[in-house]
Amino acid sequence: MKSYSRNKRTSSLIVNISLALICFLWILPTIGLLVSSFRTSRAIAESGWWYILPHQAWVKISEMPAPTGTDPDKPITIEGVSATFEQFRAGVEANGKRLKWEGNRRLGTIFVEEQRWTMDTRFTLDNYRAVILGDQFQEKQADGTSRQIQGNDIGPSMINTAVVAIPSTILPILIAAFAAYAFSWMNFIGRKILFVAVVALLVVPLQVAMVPILRDFARLEINGSYLAVWLAHVTFGLPLATYLLYNYISQLPRETMEAAYIDGASHFTTFTRLVLPLSVPALASFAIFQFIWVWNDFLVSLIFLGPSGNLRVMTARLTDMIGSRGQDWHYLTAGAFVTMLVPLIVFFSMQRYFIRGLLAGSVKG
Amino acid sequence: MSTTSSYGFRPTRLFTALIMLAIVIAALYIGFDLLRAQAVPERTDALAKFAQSVFDNATPAGKLINGIFAILLGVGGMAALFWAANGVVEELPETPKRWLLPYVFVGPMAVLLIFLYIIPTIRTVILSFYDRDGEIFVGLQNYIDTFTVSDMWDSFRNTILWIVLGTFFCVSLGLLIATLADRSKFETVARAIVFMPMAISFVGAAVIFRFIYYYAPEGSNQIGLLNAIVTTLGGEPQAWLQYNQPWNNLWLIIVVVWMQTGFCMVIFSAALKGVPEELLEAGRIDGATELRIFFNILLPYIWGTIVTVTTTIIIFMLKIFDLVMGMTGGQFSTEVIGTQFYRQLFANRNIGWGAAIATLLLIAVIPVMAYNLRQLAQNRK
Fold first, then answer.
1. What tens digit of pLDDT does each residue of A211-254 get?
2. Best residue in B127, B130, B175, B207 to probe A by mutation, most A CBs within 10 Å?
3. What ipTM is given for this predicted complex?
4. Which A positions 313-342 lie with beta carbon below 8 A of chain B?
5. Are residue B88 and residue B172 in the same domain, yes or no?
6. Domain range for B31
7. Closest residue by Cα to residue B154 from B331, B336, B327
8. Whether residues B262 and B149 fall in one domain
9. Judging by beta carbons within 10 Å of its beta carbon (0-12, 13-18, 19+), is residue A325 exposed, middle or buried?
10. Considering only Cβ atoms within 10 Å of each terminal Cβ, which end of chain B, N or C, has fewer?
């Protein structure tokens, strides 16, 4: 028995260590993004984001003017150390110190550096300002000069994303809840075939329907307006919404329903006063699922709102930035974090509902 | 609660209800036309002028007004439509009412699914036999073309790589983490951490991992995590996303594994909770190692869940699009079927090819669809 419990303890230690390792690997990318988004462009260009942790590095302790009028062919001697100019440019180590020549050959400064524990704390909020707003601003360059930069305008495109995402979340729920009620508690011709269609459509990739819809919308002149994206998102979300809500609403106790009908309640009243309030958990599960999906969507809004223009959503704007500012990591990381903010808040505050929605949906296969 | 139905048929009330419905439909039409007018700048009628002046999308304030208006219109309009349509049917005599009421409830869903999902799907299949403008019948030519052009081959090969490797890693890692978490006190925290990337968009994830894979020439500061590790260990920095084709696809697949493993883990966690404790205890008392318990008891018990999760992930990998666009834009032979669909349709303006690629996607999911429908028929019995 004793060895059994000791075995158990070592195995639980192994379990926890491997789990900790996996969690570390999993969270590292996001932390890297978050940290980088607050670092100055210069700091990002000079060192990896992990340099914000304590590490040993050469730190300047004093400086002196560089010797002038030296012979270009001969080694230069500074503080008893001889080396060529190029070597000094790169830094020469001696007696635990490092001499480094900053500036050009004729007008330079010698930095005397020592190995010390240090942290890189060059943090700033400017990245976020530059990414969210659209106005012009000055940015300090790595070489000390500054230049005029056009803001990246993610703030306004966040409004667009919200206008796309909120109705695209509420409408499928509303429409699907009505339909789920009809499937559960009403008899009508075509009920079976419609439900079969819902289940069949669960797995049909939305790309399959896109080409003809796009042509129809072009004819109706609604491409490029919110209307087009809503219709697309609502339709593509409906099969799953109907299926999930049907599974829930059809399981509501029959007696409760019948009591309402006997009291003379119409279907509409029963639905709005009784079924909707009772279905809040299921509605919330789907709502979170759909909201995060629509907020993060790129393809549907790219196709129906277009890659540019005033109404484009955040993901389109960020993709654009990857193309135009591919090396400006201080902007890209801040921009990416702005796009992630809302889904992450929703996710962490309502994780339980989100998971419940996934579990219910996974039945679909 | 409303008891209108018991009063019997009253034509005047029906007339009022019809007027209400007409008003709602008219208001919706005008509202939607206001939204639409913004997308058509060349329109000069009074309504369009009004829309363009009030909803100036170039300024944040105008955008906000427009946004609030649009949300209220979309959500409120739909609710009003249900309410008004129900109002009309409620005023009808008993028999037509009983016939029509279900269609008020199920109608909007049916209309949307039929006209924006089912019919377009059929039309896509038909369009795939037509030329690039969708006008001249070309038979199987689009399919022959897609199977003989070399960059299409690239994308077929890559999609298979995604499906095989991506699904394998997602499912097996998800199962591993779920099993580990099930035995740990820190289950909730661990699950939240692994699950979190699901809330991140593909484009956001693309930025995160482009930064991790970032390549700077040898000798300069390696600010990308992966190359920093490689150079610290004495290796040479690599341009991960560009060289070693087609295996560079693996670096993209890793990103999606990072994002989707959480999904598998959550579902497996729930399934593992359903394994009866006695079964596991019995195994332990018989002296079975944890590994044997896993393979001989747990795995068979949750096999059904594994199959479901695997098919879900396969369908997911089949449709991969955003991530490739964000990571490489399809360069360096990382094109997949999803990006080819977009490229043929928009960059090449070839409707026939776009439709043919979409039809291939449809054919790929038909086995799963058939399986689901069979399950549905069995449950009905």
1. 899 889 888 888 888 888 999 999 999 999 999 899 888 888 88
2. B207
3. 0.87
4. 315, 318-319, 322-323, 326, 329, 332-333, 335-337, 339-340
5. no
6. 4-94
7. B336
8. yes
9. middle
10. C
